[in-house]
Design goal:
four-stranded mixed β-sheet, alpha+beta, 53% helix
Amino acid sequence: MEYKLSYDVTKEDYLEYNDVHARKTMSSYFMLVALKTFVVLCSAIMIYFQVRSHQFTYSLIIPILIMGYAFFGRKLLRNKYLGKIYDSNKNIHQQNEVTIDENNISEKNSVSSMNLTKDQITEIVACKNGVYIYFSKVQCILVPSHAFENDQAFETFVEFVRTNYSSDSVKFCRFTKNKLSHVFLGILTGIVLFSVFIYFSMH
């Protein structure tokens, strides 16, 4: 079987690639989760002592602002920065022609071309919106789901890549959203916000 694909790498594809690569580097991902947890806990402690002392000061706003940055501001600024890189680098969003069979992968666009054998593949990562076929620690062939007619065709392709390219030495990972960490951080954030509510209800 052979796949012949033609697609553009969109800005959304590029942003998701960076998210996936960060998650693939588990130490970076857990460090981010730990940082957010630390911020929420510190904020909760600060607000608790504010509530306990029955003294409102503007310092109460500081932990709330820090939490806002940790959960929303950081990602917005990061995406803005990466978006600028995407817009300024025309090599990223060239029209890609990718051919994949059971043993070989080729990719070409107006700037470059590349041919890889199965032995050169080091890792495969799949998620809802794409497959990332790595041939080094940071370089990969990105195949987005919008290169296919529908979700079923994309899932068939994912299974084809897993079957033919994964092995004992080539790890295949399927990433989904880490709901557990989101729930845990959501509960902690809820405690902090509830503390704020209690404080204002007492005044």
